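Need a sequence for this fold. Nothing fancy.
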């Protein structure tokens, strides 16, 4: 975030990903929604985007690239964002994403360092996208599951951000590559509070449970869980697959919001009105300057 004037700041972010699904248009939409998410997670409004493209021109027809860019352009248009250009390189593996510029009032920027003990934690998209993406690569995902995953990952966090702006919250972040535990720890450590998470309250794509039990898990998710061991305490009855899902590396995940207990119900209602894929109160923040996370069933 860069303050231009006392009333205006710009937010600059960049993100790009490798293909998660076989449909190039859907891939373009997911990558664009993923890139825009960081701006929404800070309470800013995205305005401009630049495409970032790597594409194997010798191995894939340019029509595939056209569909990827069309997906990104349509998602940007949905967000009222202008795609002002971009840059491409020839690469053996396709990659696509955006550098995004947004604006906000400097005093209205949301941070992940201002959560308070007693806050309720809300989540706006289900977990399991990393596991489902691995299932897609191994040809183990049903057509219905792929469609549902695409729908969730390509959903903008704009509506959720508008809901937070209308009610207010103490802190927010989005859940992406470090998984729920990793991004929650970023919030608790920066805010010097702890967290208690209830597995039974965490939304998860139903098919992802069995995939996790079957070991259909990306390496990034396993590394996230190993990393979380330093700051997470699981109750003995929390199943191994639940631990993996809480650490699952997400793409274009939902917002994780710390809101005062008195405002939780109002925010949940606002999130539903604005079409958040899920609205779940998954736990609360507690006194613990070390930022540790407790996970109970």
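Here you go.
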């Amino acid at each position: 975030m860069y303050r231009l004037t006392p009333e205006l700041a710009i937010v600059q972010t960049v993100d790009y990903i490798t293909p998660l699904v076989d449909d190039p248009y859907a891939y373009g939409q997911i990558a664009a929604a993923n890139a825009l998410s960081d701006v929404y997670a800070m309470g800013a409004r995205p305005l401009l985007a630049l495409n970032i493209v790597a594409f194997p021109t010798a191995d894939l027809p340019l029509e595939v690239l056209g569909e990827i860019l069309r997906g990104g352009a349509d998602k940007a248009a949905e967000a009222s964002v202008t795609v002002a250009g971009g840059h491409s390189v020839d690469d053996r593996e396709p990659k696509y994403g955006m550098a995004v510029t947004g604006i906000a009032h400097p005093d209205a920027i949301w941070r992940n360092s201002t959560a308070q003990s007693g806050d309720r934690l809300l989540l706006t998209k289900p977990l399991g996208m990393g596991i489902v993406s691995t299932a897609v690569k191994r040809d183990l995902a049903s057509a219905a599951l792929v469609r549902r995953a695409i729908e969730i990952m390509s959903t903008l966090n704009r509506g959720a951000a508008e809901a937070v702006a209308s009610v207010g919250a103490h802190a927010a972040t989005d859940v992406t590559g470090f998984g729920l535990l990793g991004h929650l720890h970023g919030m608790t450590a920066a805010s010097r509070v702890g967290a208690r998470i209830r597995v039974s309250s965490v939304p998860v794509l139903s098919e992802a449970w069995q995939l996790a039990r079957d070991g259909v898990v990306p390496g990034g998710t396993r590394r996230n869980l190993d990393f979380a061991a330093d700051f997470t305490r699981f109750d003995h009855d929390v199943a191994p697959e639940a631990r993996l899902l809480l650490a699952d590396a997400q793409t274009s995940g939902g917002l994780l919001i710390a809101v005062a207990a008195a405002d939780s119900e109002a925010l949940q209602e606002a999130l539903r009105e604005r079409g958040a894929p899920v609205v779940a109160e998954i736990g609360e923040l507690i006194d613990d300057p070390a930022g540790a996370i407790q996970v109970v069933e």
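For context: The first helix runs from residue 24 to 41.
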